[in-house]
Design goal:
The chain is α+β, with helices and mostly antiparallel strands and 121 residues long. 27% of the residues lie in helices and 25% in strands. Helix 2 links the parallel strand 1 (18-24) and strand 2.
């Protein structure tokens, strides 16, 4: 839960960021059951993020069931490490130039553009 709290804090502090999850299952059940379980696992993470204050439209997930195993196993073998939700945080592209700066070309010194502070009016 500590990791999820850290992800939630990051998302709430960063406008435009999103969380994408891949919900996994082990091979203990049949394919349909594992798909259902991975879907429930992804939904549970979404509910936990909601409870931590993340807006619902900033989380989405894909139930991938047993198709990307962390620990390869045979059908019918329960492996707790394969029951997981892998999260990826997508950050917005930084604004360029940042607020308070503009490009200025200094022809006498260099031909490369320089980023210089904007003088307050």
């Amino acid at each position: 839960m500590q990791t999820l709290r850290g992800v939630a804090d990051l998302i709430k502090a960063t406008p435009g960021s999103r969380v994408y999850g891949r919900a996994h299952a082990d091979r203990a059940g049949d394919e349909a059951a594992n798909f259902f379980l991975s879907r429930r696992r992804g939904e549970a993470v979404g509910q936990a993020l909601l409870a931590l204050g993340v807006a619902a439209d900033r989380y989405s997930f894909w139930p991938v069931a047993e198709y990307t195993l962390l620990v390869p196993t045979r059908r019918g073998v329960a492996e707790p490490q394969n029951r997981r939700v892998a999260l990826r945080v997508s950050m917005p592209e930084p604004k360029w130039p940042p607020d308070g700066y503009r490009y200025e070309e200094l022809r006498c010194v260099t031909t490369r553009p320089q980023l210089v502070p904007v003088k307050a009016p």
